[in-house]
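sanity check this record:

:::
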Amino acid sequence: MTRTVVRLLMVAGLVGIGWTVGRAQSAPAAPLSDFELMVSGAVGDAQITCVRGCTITWAPTVIPATGPVDIKVPTPTLRGSVNAAAAQGCVAPNYSPKNCKIWGWVKP
């Protein structure tokens, strides 16, 4: 009698462990972040694409004390060139090779 009870408890325990492991693996994975960027390119050319949760735009690295600030309209994709002359290298728009700052934000 004791042997049968032990076997039933072992079977119930193994089924319970299997069910728990199966439920843990079937749960959907939470996103790692609120946004996702993809950077691709070739030699001297680069493309930055907002895949999920953001829009991006070029912004000036130095804001003048007076006068207008040139900030482009937000878009999902930016194309530019790699500026190797910068201290750490950066991606800048073709029309402004010293402008290496990209702004991005989460969509409302």
Summary: The chain has two domains: 1-30, 36-105.
